[in-house]
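Example record

One chain of 228 residues, shown exactly as stored in the release files.
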Amino acid sequence: MKNHLPNAVTCLNLFAGCLALCNIFAGHLEIAAYLVGLAAAFDFADGLLARALHASSPIGKDLDSLADMVSFGVVPGAILFHLLQQSSGLPEWLPYAGFIVTVFSALRLAKFNNDTRQTNSFIGLPTPACTLVVASLPLILAHDTFSLSSVILNPWVLLGLTLLLSGLLVAEIPLFALKFKNLTWQDNSLRFIFLLLAVALLVVLQAAAIPLIVLLYVGLSVIRPAYG
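Predicted structure tokens for this chain:
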């Protein structure tokens, strides 16, 4: 039974991603954003369970990537497509450019499954981090404390973000993983610093902090080499 528990949680990730897609199609982007957060929580939990129960398997690895392709590949592309449709002055075909993120997410996941360098760290931005940035946009729009709506709905900002995230997904940039082998400061100082700063940003800026947190994650990884 324990061998199937991580896979069951992975399936919950996939189910949350499917529900997010349904809400995007219905125009409920804020609900979709919360479902993305739920999918990300399941994605984090299945890895923890697999390691804790020593239940890792090739099927689990493949299932995880298939689930991630929906929750963190198709979903961000659909959100960007929807936001670009709301932007004025664009040719009818241009909102489909949002799905460039979906294409590069597929490349990222395929690369991850076959790259032996990514056992204890990442090469390129993980798809959940990319999707959290995209999913934060509807939340910022819904609770626009800092008057960012005009910036977010600027089509060139959205297209620029699409290209930036797509590039980061496959970039040869080593990024640390949030995997704690123990709780000592010496072995996890970078992770602790990141988590403390991330919590502080969330308290002050709420949803608007999410893109900054991902930027912080990339920045800290570049300043200090990624390690397991």
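Notes: The chain is about 70% helix and 5% strand.
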